[in-house]
Amino acid sequence: MNIKRIFGVTVLMALSLCATEVKVDGSYSKLLGNPFKAKLETKTQDISIVQGESKLIPLNVETNRNDFSFRKPELSVLNTACNNVLKSFVAEDYNVVSNASKKVSCEILPSTVVKIDYVMKEDHSFANQISDIVVHLVIRVNDNGKTYEDTIDMNKDLNLKGAMQYELSIRSEMNIESLDLEENVKKIFENAIYSILAKNKKG
Questions:
Q1: Based on the number of CB atoms within 10 Å of its own CB, is 123 exposed (0-12), middle (13-18) or buried (19 or more)?
Q2: 179 lies in a domain?
């Protein structure tokens, strides 16, 4: 490994350590689809979720602020955390076990972007208040040997930006005032991942 590569890896690790982790744990995605079917219906097929190599990746964060004193939020996410949403999704139709012949996995890719808009006051200065969050999510899914990558843009109201709407049974509303930044981003992530999985299931 040459010096430039070592330096690049060191910087990446330092950024990851400083950034606040967005913990995509499936707590929102388990409310989507038909959770009663996932828990109560008897399944006849098994599936395994493959974790792969886990690593904390820094997220690209963009904002509309350019004031000198402002420090842009630093966020990171575990690439394999996508599997927590995948588990919620496949549990409707499969028994999730460790040794099934059918295997699936999901990974959040580093090209994912979080865009944060702050409120601009009448004097054109910025208030320390978020008006919108848009996540440009990029994931890779391996569905029993078939791999695909897909993207989606979703905002804080869980609306898809520039994409077809897919019906999801969302049982809770986004309230940007009552949730902190990381929790808002987490909620968008989980709904966006679920949307991609649902879209590709429909073909």
A1: exposed
A2: yes
Q: Is residue 11 part of a domain?
A: no
Answer yes or no: are the C-beta atoms of 124 and 175 closer than 8 Å.
no
Count of domains for the chain: 1
- The one-letter amino acid code at 129 reads Q
Average pLDDT over residues 86-114: 96
Q: Measured in whole angstroms, how far is the alpha carbon of residue 156 from the centre of its chain? A: 13
Which pTM does this prediction carry? 0.81
**Angstrom distance (rounded) from CA 128 to CA 23:** 23
Residue 177 counted as domain residue: yes
The most confident of 9-18, 113-122, 185-194, by mean pLDDT:
185-194
Q: How far is it, in rounded angstroms, from Cα 125 to Cα 193?
A: 35
Instruction: Render pLDDT for 149-186 as a digit per residue (tens, 0 to 9).
Output: 999 999 988 876 543 333 443 333 344 444 689 999 99
Q: Is residue 37 part of a domain?
A: yes
> Quick one: pLDDT at residue 68?
82
Question: 196: domain range?
Answer: 20-202
Q: State whether residue 26 is helix, strand or coil.
A: coil
Residue 65 in tokens: 């602020």
Q: Where are the alpha helices (DSSP H) in the chain?
A: 3-18, 35-40, 82-90, 181-202
**Phi, psi angles (nearest 5°) of residue 166:** -115, 135
- Cα distances from 40 to residues 37, 151, 163, 169, in angstroms, run 5, 32, 33, 18
